[in-house]
């Protein structure tokens, strides 16, 4: 469900001025309604929690004392915000402002925009948000449930064209996007939705979590080089510059019945980008890193590794040491002691001493076991 602050992405909002209740701009919006005759007769049965209320205060044109009780009633209903078209009023009585501030109710004044246009924009926004939530839940069910048959069929019916048997996935995130909808609006402006890009294949995109999940379907299995060529073309014709995004690509096609695996591959590869501070990565070059990242979603594995880190951190606090820092640096330097020493500006023997101390704390009996644990901690908890 979108919040009041997310309306800033729309052009009409440039005509809005926040007058009171700034602390409430993250209230959730569930509907958009007009306040009109209710200000006269006091019947607010058609108003509900989460409503974005639009009014011109006609009911209080010559009676400003009517504003306070109407706002009090709307506050008790827990509406999301009130937007006032500045026809009859350009400011509010002091007691109304104090009431809005006390209850963190955002109150806006606006002009130079039709109320109908505001309503249409917000209604479309809410519908898009509902669809995003539905598809996001479908994807979650598909990739995190042991037997997701029903959800799998629903997802494929939504995004997979007929006679397409194989899929590749790309997960794109944009650190500069404020929320899911602003990213979708950018894609819509680029005319991405529903476009056919490549002969004998189709592309679908879904807003998922904090990014965009793109699914590329094909009639036949394609080699990695061809898949990457097609993804570059897709991004190009979509006016999506790869340099502006963090991108993880599954460069190995899978049967559509394994779409859950394809999606996970691209998501984990995207996370590897963040860890390596690199804008793009492909699945085939990640090796065991994506497998390690998958353990971050395993409740037991996460708890086990977190417990190990707590033991090391506790030692650091008691003895004013830097063992956790050394552990992460050691993993980042691919278990090279000399490189770790250079990174931390320490003597290699100092690094060896610290690593041996970590081994002792974790009760590791050999280097192989130790490196696996260090790698898992670095990949799943960083």
TrEMBL record:
Pfam family, one: HTH_30
Protein name: PucR family transcriptional regulator
Domain Purine catabolism PurC-like stretches: 11-125
Domain PucR C-terminal helix-turn-helix stretches: 323-364
Superkingdom of the source species: Bacteria
